[in-house]
Design goal:
By secondary structure, the chain is mainly β. Helix content is 0%, strand content 56%. The protein has one domain: predicted glycosyltransferase like domains (Thrombin, subunit H), CATH 2.40.10. The chain is globular and about 30 Å long.
Length: 88
């Protein structure tokens, strides 16, 4: 059995968020629903139904109980059902 150790290259610690969000493509006006699985000060892991439908750059809106905020993002990686993004 070969043991492979994963190297964590994140610049900041992440925590579980489980918040709903919206992916907004400014060029087309397309809006996709997503769930924020994990969040850090530098990026998020988004749970999405179709990772290939997420544009390379987009605005992510996150609604909390008190407010809603938008942040510019870029895709760093894609895998089935999820997308990793960095804040710009």
């Amino acid at each position: 059995m070969v043991h492979v150790e994963r190297v964590d290259r994140r610049g900041a610690p992440r925590y579980r968020a489980q918040k709903s969000g919206k992916i907004i493509c400014p060029e087309t006006g397309t809006i996709l629903d997503c769930v924020i699985g994990e969040m850090s000060s530098t990026g998020v892991r988004l749970l999405v139904s179709s990772p290939l439908a997420v544009p390379r750059r987009f605005e992510l809106t996150v609604r909390s109980q008190r407010s809603q905020r938008a942040v510019s993002c870029r895709v760093v990686w894609r895998s089935p059902g999820e997308v990793g993004v960095a804040f710009e």
